[in-house]
Amino acid sequence: MSEYYETEVIIFDHEGNEVANHPLTVEIELITPSTAPSGMYGPPEFYDPGDGPEFDILSFEIFVGNDRRGSPLNISLTPEEYEGLFPQHQQAAQNAIEWAQDHERDFL
């Protein structure tokens, strides 16, 4: 099951000037749910602290405006394409994963 994280991406020109600010949607999938601690009341060798959830980013979609007919014009990118085109915006991916960890129940 996937959820969507909404943020924005700022596009800069070759001189570092801000050119545009576009809405960015990150599609995230829950790979493995978190597990609760177990074995807390037995011998220490049976203690398992549990694990946090594991997520994967499936895609990035940038809304760049409307076409001539007024329909939304979006650019869909794989995580690899996004990283190649926007290396300065990797914080968006990290923020999406942190958001997903805080909203794990939404994925279940």
What key attributes describe this structure?
single chain, 108 residues, alpha+beta, 4-stranded antiparallel beta sheet, 4 strands
Shape: elongated
Q: Helicity range of the residues?
A: 10-25%
Strand order of the largest sheet: 1-2-3-4
Number of strands: 4
Report on the architecture of this protein.
With 108 residues, the protein is α+β, with helices and mostly antiparallel strands. The protein has one domain (2-107). The chain has helices at 79-85, 90-102, 104-107; strands at residues 2-12, 18-32, 54-66, 72-77. It has a four-stranded antiparallel sheet. The radius of gyration is 19 Å and the shape is elongated. The N and C termini lie close together (7 Å).
Topology:
Elements: E1 2-12, E2 18-32, E3 54-66, E4 72-77, H1 79-85, H2 90-102, H3 104-107
Antiparallel strand pairs: 1-2, 2-3, 3-4
Please provide a brief summary of the model:
With 108 residues, this protein is α+β, with helices and mostly antiparallel strands. It has helices at residues 79-85, 90-102, 104-107; strands at 2-12, 18-32, 54-66, 72-77.
